[in-house]
Amino acid sequence: MTINDIINSRMKGLLNQLVKWAVQISELLNMEGEFNKNDIFIGFDKEETLQSLVIYNGNDPELKDKTNILHKCKEQLIDIALPDGIVHSKKSMLKNEEIDYWYNFYFQQDYEDFPSYIRSC
């Protein structure tokens, strides 16, 4: 049994959207293959990372619709991004407005120390 066996059809649609977004933010224009999800997200595992986020957030009763679930998954993925990966993502395939949003989201977070960061997740 794998983590993909746990994902229902509703979650599969969310997973596909999140996979597409992760590719778009992590692959740079005109530099295919030179920068990828492993370069931006700490500990990225193609078999577990995105699937785990979709399962976790898809079962959160406070996140009622697909848009909120997907947004929360993106937030948590950005939380494990490396600073240089976020800087590089400015040249990614995402639309400028969206990449500016995530760039600002990442760099405007304010944590006093590591424990406060962990508590925020």
Main features:
E3 ubiquitin-protein ligase; 121 residues; 59% helix; mainly alpha
Gist of the model:
By secondary structure, this protein is mainly α.
Describe the structure.
This protein is 59% helix and 0% strand. By secondary structure, the chain is mainly α. It has one domain (3-120). The radius of gyration is 14 Å and the shape is globular. The model has no long low-confidence stretch (mean pLDDT 86). This is E3 ubiquitin-protein ligase.
How many structural domains does the protein architecture include? 1
Largest sheet: none
Q: What is the C-alpha radius of gyration, as a whole number of Å?
A: 14 Å
The helix count comes to 7
Shape category: globular
Terminal-residue CA separation = 28 Å
Report helical residue fraction.
Answer: 55-70%
Quote the average pLDDT. Answer: 86
> What string gives the helices and strands in order?
HHHHHHH
